[in-house]
Design goal:
The protein contains 3 helices and 8 strands. The strands form 2 sheets. Strands 4-3-8-7-6-5 form a 6-stranded mixed sheet. The chain is globular. The two termini are about 35 Å apart.
């Protein structure tokens, strides 16, 4: 169909061989080994192979192109550049898969909530981070580095945009964190 934009994931063919509808519509893909991922067709430059960029709130990929979402690393804040040292230690432990360092970064009575619901911290951390290979890429930080928006991914849910808020105790450890979809 001449003049219509193509999907940033499939290049124009939706699930089941259907054509992508007109500008601005959304549809869903289930990449191999991953969770369903919303795809929003965007105007702008094409990726290698003629595909359009995934919708990340940008209109074009970084210079030189990018094969997929993970290559938008230029938009990620390196963990060693985060403002708050306690948050920096905690998230570095997440990405390293280091449970010992993670729990050492927390107070003994630390608590957490996921999407507004209080959770058992040890069970949630095991299920959502360590046994499912969690990884966090920080996109923005506010509130002296204690309020973040990040792309979080794990083997259970795939990748999602999330918000994180941290409370840090006077001893420099995290006493509470709250996370949820951004």
């Amino acid at each position: 169909m001449q003049g219509s934009l193509r999907c940033g994931v499939c290049g124009g063919v939706g699930e089941g061989g259907r054509r992508v509808p007109t500008r601005g519509s959304k549809h869903t893909h289930r990449p191999p080994g991953g969770a369903a991922t919303p795809a929003l067709r965007t105007a702008g430059a094409r990726l290698a192979g003629g595909r359009r960029p995934w919708s990340l709130g940008v209109s074009a990929p970084p210079p030189g192109g990018a094969a997929d979402r993970r290559e938008y690393a230029a938009m990620t804040i390196p963990l060693d550049k985060l403002s708050d040292p306690a948050v920096r230690r905690l998230l570095s432990a997440v990405n390293a898969g280091d449970q010992g360092a993670f729990f050492a970064s927390l107070t003994e009575d630390a608590t957490m909530a996921d999407d507004g619901t209080e959770r058992d911290l040890a069970q949630w951390v095991d299920r959502e981070i360590f046994s499912s290979h969690g990884h966090i890429d920080v996109q923005t930080e506010k509130g002296d580095g204690r309020a973040l928006v990040a792309n979080y991914r794990n083997d259970t849910w795939g990748e999602m945009r999330t918000s994180w808020r941290f409370t840090v105790s006077p001893d420099g450890r995290v006493s509470r964190f709250e996370t949820g979809q951004a």
